[in-house]
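Problem 12. The chain below contains 90 residues. Write out its predicted structure in token notation.
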Amino acid sequence: MSDSERSLNLAASRPRMFIALAVLIVLGVLSWLTIDSSAVLHVQGFSSRYVAFGARDVEVRWFPILFLGLFAFKVVLANMRARLETRGPR
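Solution.
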């Protein structure tokens, strides 16, 4: 990677990463407050030779939190990778 390409790597910017994480946190809070806590999805029990779990109700409001958490993990990993790439070989 040349010096000009290293300076153009926007994924390595820590302020941009913190802005992206702040936006994901705001979206998570808004989704938590928007979705009613009484909205549940009934999951039937399952049993096989290796895995078994009982029937339960899962709150729907946890799905967007999980989804946004995965995006936050991806943002952090992309930032770490970009910073390692801009540092170059040792």
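Discussion. The radius of gyration is 20 Å. Students who got a different answer should revisit the alignment rule from Section 12.3.
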